[in-house]
Amino acid sequence: MLLDDIHEPADLRNLSQAELIQLAAEIRAFIVETVTTTGGHLGSNLGAVELTLAVHRVFDSPKDVILWDTGHQTYTHKLVTGRKTGFATLRQPGGLSGYPSRAESPHDWIENSHASTALSYAHGFATAFERTGEQDRRVVTVLGDGSLTGGMAYEALNNLGHAGSPVIIVLNDNGRSYAPTVSKLSSGLTQLRLNPSYVHVRQSVRHVLRRIPGFGGLAYSGVHGLTSALREILTPHRFFEALGIRYAGPIDGHDIAGMEHAFANAREWDGPILVHVLTQKGRGYAPAEEDEVQRLHDFKVRPSTSAPADSVAPVSYTDAFTRSILEIAARRPDVLAITAAMPGPTGLLPLQAGYPDQFLDVGIAEQHAVTAAAGMAMAGIRPVVAVYSTFFSRAFDQANLDVGLHDLPVVFVLDRAGITGDDGPSHHGVLDLSLALSIPGMTVFTPSSAQEVSLMLEQALELPGPSTIRFPKTPARQAAEGAVGEGLHGRLVRRGDGSVCILGVGKLLEAAEEAAGKLAAEGIDATVWDVRVVSPPDQAMLADAAGHGLVVTVEDGIHVGGAGSFLVDAMRQLPELGHPLPPVRIIGVPRAYIPQGKPDQILADLGLDGQGIAASVVEALNTEKDRLRLS
Fold first, then answer.
1. Which of 26, 55, 359, 594 registers the highest number of CB atoms within 10 A of its CB?
2. Which secondary-structure segment (H or E) carries 70?
3. Could you give the count of Cα atoms lying within 13 Å of 505 in the half-sphere of its Cβ?
């Protein structure tokens, strides 16, 4: 296999075009075999094979800085930069990351798993190279999978054009974002416009014409007007060139030779230039090509189980949200759901299909989604913004000042909250509790079961101000009949003897109950509360907890400024407390970037499973006994 002999980008430059075609086929087969075993992003990578080969044959990585946006399209890049043997561990604990990783290779400059950021990095690199005199280094950004729908990308385009930064932008257009019309005439003109010789001659002719006595200005205007008119007709360049960025394309993103020619000429341009490349997402793999919705954007490996093949899969929190929003939409035309390029993962595809007028996908533009929701709320609509927890942080300013400051009834539904697993540190949703709780007037719901989701969504849509409902990616707990709360109150799950009270937040209620069982075996009878609503906190729950000898809070969010510290601070302010606050132990995710792994194992390693919580309780009780003995 040719792929076995590729260890660095330089190995690609000795291959013929026929060998490159063979290598592309081998890479596709390898990616399909790997991803269908380990899970990961499939469609995007199958579409970017030839493009990646062309980029690495023209540019000299890592001397030339190649930035990928988004980072999930980099599997071929990883293969040709010497990481083939690591693909057996793709997205596994301690294994190869599903995104670029600075720890893995000098060819990975940014760990870019969130979209629309690479152009800003590129501006920074180009500015630094200009300051340090490194004129022989090129900066290349490969934008794909809707990255150009994010507002930050346009901010960077504006600055790149204004500065004239020599950045090559490769727009990997796979039909899932920006997609202008393709024509052979346009492609032919593109090759002419890219050619450095043509550019040099055109500038020389213009210079000569300007100097013709009496007729220079008219002659120059005539030639300039003719070429401008042709370009207006033949190429979709107007937007980019209005920003000062030269446009070339579109060209075939599976024609390696054609892309090499375009990239080589773009390399010689002395300012920012965008090369528009058309690719087919999921190319070469029939199941992906036939998937009209996502082109098998990602592939999920089902966990091994001994359950019968025809058994019903456990309901997820996302499923519960889907069912609830559909039921609500059927009777409330004022409810409108908004998402940022995530209608499938956030469970909104059925709503889009059944109630298209009550659904809006804004692309990768979380900031816009939130402020648009604020405007809708001002005009009488009840917006529900559904995004991943990790992406909520991108729109915090808007949630705080555009929604919170105006006390608007916008509901944020944050999926993938807490420890998520194999996508690694960029996708763990551990900040949302801390962020939401810092917004004045924000009601924060934390369902502990699938059955709580519908109750909380209904409640949130009746509130006069903003609210957040956060839940994890993992299967939802199924509550027994009657084992749910109501309103904005906590729910007493287990009554102990007053020695310990455990306040379980959301998903970790189950671990809190498990811990109580283990403690009972050691003679410690713990009280357990399902917090349900962190803000505003249930005063009766807080008063009950404060009457115990030890209070323990558990959450799958960062413990700094999270639910635990919020509840303890509220407990200190209880007007009827009448005695010092008992000892407190706040258990949550540490202030660290947590590597990829299986969620349950990560939580266990962090002491956030039943065993770990029980151990923390015993340690805290022993510490308090020692303190009392020494005092």
1. 55
2. none
3. 31
Residue with tokens 């090129």: 138
366 is catalytic: yes
Report yes or no: 365 and 151 within 8 Å, Cβ to Cβ.
yes
Give the Cα separation of 527 and 50 in Å (integer): 60
DSSP summary character for residue 98: S
pLDDT score recorded for residue 205:
46
- Count CB-CB contacts under 10 A for residue 332: 14
63 is catalytic: no
Buried b (16+ CB within 10 A) or exposed e, 457-474: bebbbeeebbbbbbbbbb
User: Looking at per-residue confidence, does 73 or 293 come out higher?
Assistant: 73
Question: For residue 340, what are the CA distances in angstroms to 50, 118, 279?
Answer: 29, 18, 22
DSSP assignment of 332-376 equals: -TTEEEEESS-TTTTT-HHHHHH-GGGEEE--S-HHHHHHHHHHH
Alpha carbons within 13 angstroms on the beta-carbon side of residue 371 total 11
The more confidently predicted of residues 414 and 99 is: 414
Catalytic residue among 83, 246, 281, 382: 281
Provide the pLDDT for residue 198: 45
pLDDT in tens, 571-596: 999 987 777 899 999 999 999 999 98
Phi, psi at 40, each rounded to 5°: 145, -175
The structural domains of the chain, ordered by start, are: 2-180+236-286 (3.40.50.970), 317-470 (3.40.50.970), 491-630 (3.40.50.920)
Per-residue pLDDT at 87: 86
Catalytic-labelled residue, pool 394, 470, 491, 585: 394
Within the chain, what is the greatest distance between any pair of CA atoms?
Answer: 104
- Residue from 50, 366, 452, 513 carrying the catalytic annotation: 366
Question: In this predicted model, what pLDDT tens digit does every residue of 130-180 receive, in sequence order?
Answer: 999 998 999 999 998 778 888 889 999 999 999 999 999 999 988 753 233
Whether 137 is catalytic is no
